[in-house]
């Protein structure tokens, strides 16, 4: 960029130039270097260092689709892009990725994937449950495109392979970080909807294969017997001073080593 | 996205400060800063917590909580006019006619919808974005439940009420702590993947202000795991869901009951009338109002719409002058500014340090105290680290976790955090991360009773939109619990109430009279709410849009 003086002039979509006003909330610092991005093919200039999401807003877009938690958890802002002079398609979450100069991008905020409706109480953690609900799982050709297109770097093909073997535990473990953005399904030649297969697997694993918490069952029984009612009733009617004294002198469980399982990386998940 | 070797994500002067952190690390491993006494905490809060900052609170002049105070940014949307004209709006055509209307598609709304549906009600869930677009999805740390032998619901009760400043409504706290194990059981039956030992025992850790380790987590995707499972279940059961549909005004009937809402399709900009025998507001909090200009950890949709609607319908607030700042929001680098660094990082043993690598506060004080101490360290003592963009923050010494619990612990227990920082080329297993308090939670809200009912007949509230259960300060892990406890209660009770309800003539008279009150109080008619979504476009953009005429107008 030629002009990097205090009062930058930025190009607006009509091609005219105008001066940035004061008091902007998405501030382009006076010295900020600008980059060119192409939003669905159309060029905009935005400050370097912004996330794709903030760059869209800087460019003047008001986001309705394609914007959710703005923190990398909800999968609303899956984005496909390439950079000038490169044929290779890349993916990103718009809220987590900083713009690059010459980025051609589009968002894929929704994908019309088929979700099976099932009664989780009537399934078992078997290959059958997977195949009955998602017969297309067997159409996987192991091309690994899903893995390449996952913005969470999840081993998608591996968990689908586990699903095809009926290895529900591995399916659940490998797919755990999935935010269900849908990018895997968008590129899958077998037309699998990987993220729906994954959540079915995780639910089956958690419900049927993880041992149930015995201490939880005991506690529920105690609550039903009214074991804590008297003590809680006393706390509810206690005056603030007594409550305060009780709180300030309560014993705190010491911080100690985490359980053996965590140290060895062997949690049942 | 692997770390790029040889590219230091921190500028040289920050690296210098990190060297001081490293120098003190081995000495600090087993030496946490002592906890503050009750008086010290009180003093710290008074002087440094943003809730006590002069001139930020204003009095509410109209409505059921007239005379109470709230923050300027909240007042701005509460004392505002409807998006529709209540005198001329046509209510004669009913577009949706249901037993239970659920407004909000987060964890509270979804669990309410599931329970109401289970009770046989015809349910409609509306949400202005997608089902699951909510703060629930972003909650990382975990959910509290006193389900272990050495713990008890009574202990949980004491922790909640002490942490809340003794201002909690005891009967709500009772519901919270006694329902908690039931909620965990429900989640277990639905098939949510919470961390367990091999024998099925839940792995639990401390959170700020807990006296027993009762934080249950699903790695650091706890809320996401709950949300995606509930969403899956709502879909499985065929509950009707309208996405990209906001509720912009509640309806009442001539008997004074809440009777549904006016819906607004966010995409086509059409209005629809929904008549409902009972209505549940589960719209979450106010993070996107950016109180006192703080960045926020909150979801894009956290604009407190439900508060506006319920208040106009006559439901009073409680503690709308208490905002929770999460002590550890990301302060560096710029692209993740304000995002949550889960309290679990401190739960696992990371300490909070100043520019010289010294501790200045016990790492697991309650959130209000921890935040106030960090603000004091930066603003008053000048011992923060200033970033290249002018943010100030203190270090959270994450590598300490690996020293305490072994190599690989961070990656195993905090995969979302590791990923977030790797995207910024920061390896949090080796380098500390810079943090500063960020607007996180609305402690107060619409007043409810233990049945999740507001003071308006047939209007139920669940989750962050409600107030009272957390007093003036919520503990970590009690929000995921809150939305499920009161979401379930709201769903169950709204379905039961719907069975004995007949709705009379629909009316917007309550909005008409609210407008009159506003006019009498001299509130400008330029103020319109609910906000529905924040607007992060530049003022320059808005300036150029002035005078636009709808396309196709002739």
What are the main properties of this structure?
A: 269 residues, Ubiquitin-like (UB roll), Fumarate Reductase Iron-sulfur Protein, Chain B, domain 2, two-stranded antiparallel ribbon, 11 helices, B: 554 residues, Flavocytochrome C3, Chain A, domain 1, FAD/NAD(P)-binding domain, five-stranded antiparallel beta sheet, 21 strands, globular
Task: Give structural notes.
The complex is a heterodimer of chains A (269) and B (554). In chain A, helix 4 runs antiparallel to helix 5 (168-174) and helix 5 (168-174) crosses helix 7 (194-209). The model of chain A is unreliable at 1-30 and 260-269 (pLDDT under 50). Chain A is flat, with a radius of gyration of 26 Å. Chain A has helices at residues 52-58, 127-133, 145-148, 156-165, 168-174, 183-187, 194-209, 214-224, 229-237, 240-248, 260-263; strands at residues 9-11, 17-19, 34-39, 42-47, 78-83, 90-93, 103-107. Among the domains of chain A are: 9-17 and 26-107, Ubiquitin-like (UB roll) (Roll), CATH 3.10.20.440; 120-209, Orthogonal Bundle (Fumarate Reductase Iron-sulfur Protein, Chain B, domain 2), CATH 1.10.1060. Chain A has 269 residues and is of the alpha+beta class. By secondary structure, chain B is α+β, with helices and mostly antiparallel strands. Among the domains of chain B are: 12-52 and 325-439, Succinate dehydrogenase/fumarate reductase flavoprotein, catalytic domain (Flavocytochrome C3, Chain A, domain 1, Alpha-Beta Complex); 96-140 and 222-322 and 443-507, FAD/NAD(P)-binding domain (3-Layer(bba) Sandwich). In chain B, 33% of the residues lie in helices and 17% in strands. Chain B has 16 helices and 21 strands. Chain B has helices at 12-28, 38-48, 72-78, 107-118, 153-163, 170-190, 222-236, 305-312, 344-347, 367-380, 399-405, 409-413, 415-422, 478-499, 509-520, 539-545; strands at residues 57-59, 69-71, 96-103, 123-126, 143-144, 204-205, 215-216, 240-242, 245-253, 258-265, 271-281, 317-318, 323-330, 352-353, 385-386, 392-396, 433-442, 445-447, 459-461, 466-467, 506-507. In chain B, strands 3, 4, 8, 9, 10, 11, 19 and 21 form an 8-stranded mixed beta sheet that branches. In chain B, a hairpin with a 4-residue loop joins strand 9 (245-253) and strand 10 (258-265). In chain B, helix 2 packs across helix 10 and helix 4 packs parallel to helix 7 (222-236). The mean pLDDT of chain B is 95. Chains A and B meet through helix 1, helix 7, helix 8, helix 9 and helix 10 of A and helix 5, helix 6, helix 7, helix 12 and helix 13 of B.
């Amino acid at each position: 960029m030629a002009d990097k003086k205090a009062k930058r002039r930025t190009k607006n979509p009509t091609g005219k130039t105008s001066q940035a006003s004061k008091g902007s909330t998405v501030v382009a610092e006076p010295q900020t270097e600008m980059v060119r991005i192409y939003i669905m093919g159309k060029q905009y200039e935005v400050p370097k260092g912004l996330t794709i999401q903030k760059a869209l807003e800087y460019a003047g877009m008001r986001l309705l689709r394609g914007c959710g938690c703005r923190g990398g958890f909800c999968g609303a802002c899956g984005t496909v892009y390439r950079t000038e002079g490169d044929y290779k398609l890349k993916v990103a979450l718009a809220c987590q990725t900083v713009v690059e100069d010459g980025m051609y991008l589009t968002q894929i905020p929704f994908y019309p994937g088929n979700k099976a409706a099932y009664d989780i109480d009537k399934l078992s953690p078997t290959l059958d449950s997977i195949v009955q609900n998602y017969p297309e799982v067997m159409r996987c050709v192991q091309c690994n495109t899903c893995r390449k297109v996952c913005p969470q770097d999840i081993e998608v093909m591996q968990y689908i392979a586990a699903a095809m073997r009926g290895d529900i535990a591995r399916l659940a473990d490998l797919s755990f970080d999935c935010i269900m953005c849908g990018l895997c399904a968008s590129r899958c030649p077998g037309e699998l909807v990987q993220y729906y297969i994954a959540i079915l697997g995780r639910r089956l694993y958690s419900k049927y294969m993880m041992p149930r918490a015995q201490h939880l069952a005991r506690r529920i029984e105690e609550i039903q017997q009214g074991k804590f009612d008297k003590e809680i009733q006393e706390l509810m009617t206690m005056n603030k001073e007594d409550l305060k004294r009780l709180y300030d002198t309560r014993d705190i469980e010491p911080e100690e080593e985490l359980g053996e399982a965590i140290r060895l990386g062997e949690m049942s998940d | 996205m692997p770390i790029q070797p040889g590219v230091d994500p921190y500028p040289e002067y920050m690296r210098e400060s990190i060297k001081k952190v490293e120098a003190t690390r081995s000495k600090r491993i087993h030496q946490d800063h002592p906890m503050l006494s009750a008086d010290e905490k009180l003093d710290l809060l008074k002087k440094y917590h943003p809730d006590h900052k002069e001139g930020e609170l204003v009095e509410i002049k109209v409505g059921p909580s007239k005379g109470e105070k709230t923050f300027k940014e909240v007042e701005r949307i509460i004392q505002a006019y409807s998006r529709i004209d209540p005198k001329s709006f046509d209510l004669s055509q009913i577009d949706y006619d249901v037993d239970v209307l659920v407004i909000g598609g987060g964890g509270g709304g979804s669990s309410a919808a599931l329970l109401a549906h289970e009770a046989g009600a015809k349910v409609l869930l509306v949400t202005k974005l997608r089902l699951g677009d909510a703060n629930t999805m972003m909650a990382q740390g975990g959910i509290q439940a006193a389900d272990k032998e050495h713990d008890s619901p009574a202990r949980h009760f004491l922790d909640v009420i002490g942490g809340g400043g003794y201002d909690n409504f005891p009967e709500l706290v009772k519901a919270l702590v006694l329902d908690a194990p039931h909620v965990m059981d429900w989640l277990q039956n639905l098939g949510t993947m919470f961390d367990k030992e091999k024998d099925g025992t839940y792995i639990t850790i401390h959170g700020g202000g807990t006296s027993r380790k009762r934080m249950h987590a699903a790695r650091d995707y706890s809320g996401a795991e709950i949300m995606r499972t509930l969403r899956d279940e709502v879909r499985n059961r065929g509950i009707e869901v309208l996405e990209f549909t906001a509720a912009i005004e509640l309806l009442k009937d001539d008997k004074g009951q809440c009777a549904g809402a006016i819906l607004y399709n966010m995409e086509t900009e059409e209005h629809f009338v929904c008549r409902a025998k009972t209505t549940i507001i589960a719209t979450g909090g106010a993070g996107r109002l950016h109180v006192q200009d703080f960045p926020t950890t909150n979801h894009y949709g956290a604009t407190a719409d439900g508060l506006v609607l319920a208040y106009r319908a006559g439901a009073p607030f409680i503690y709308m002058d208490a905002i929770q700042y999460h002590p550890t929001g990301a302060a560096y680098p710029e692209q993740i500014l304000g995002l949550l660094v889960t309290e679990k990082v401190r739960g696992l043993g990371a300490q909070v340090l100043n520019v010289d690598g010294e501790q200045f506060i016990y790492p697991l004080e309650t959130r209000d105290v921890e935040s106030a101490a960090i603000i004091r360290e930066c603003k008053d003592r000048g011992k923060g680290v200033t970033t290249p963009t002018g943010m100030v923050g203190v270090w959270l010494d994450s590598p300490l976790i690996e020293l305490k619990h072994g190599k690989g612990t961070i990656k195993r227990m905090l995969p979302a955090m590791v990923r977030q920082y790797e995207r910024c080329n920061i390896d949090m297993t080796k380098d500390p991360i810079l943090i500063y308090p960020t607007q996180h939670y609305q402690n107060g809200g619409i007043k409810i009773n233990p049945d999740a009912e507001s003071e308006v007949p047939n209007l139920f509230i669940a989750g962050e939109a409600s107030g009272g259960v957390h007093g003036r300060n919520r503990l970590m892990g009690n929000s995921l619990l809150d939305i499920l406890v009161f979401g379930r209660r709201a769903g169950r009770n709204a379905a039961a109430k719907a069975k004995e309800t007949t709705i009379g003539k629909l009316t917007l008279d309550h909005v008409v009279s609210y407008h009159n009150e506003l006019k009498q109080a001299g509130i400008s008619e330029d103020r319109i709410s609910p906000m529905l979504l924040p607007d992060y476009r530049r003022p320059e953009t808005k300036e150029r849009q002035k005078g636009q005429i709808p396309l196709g107008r002739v």
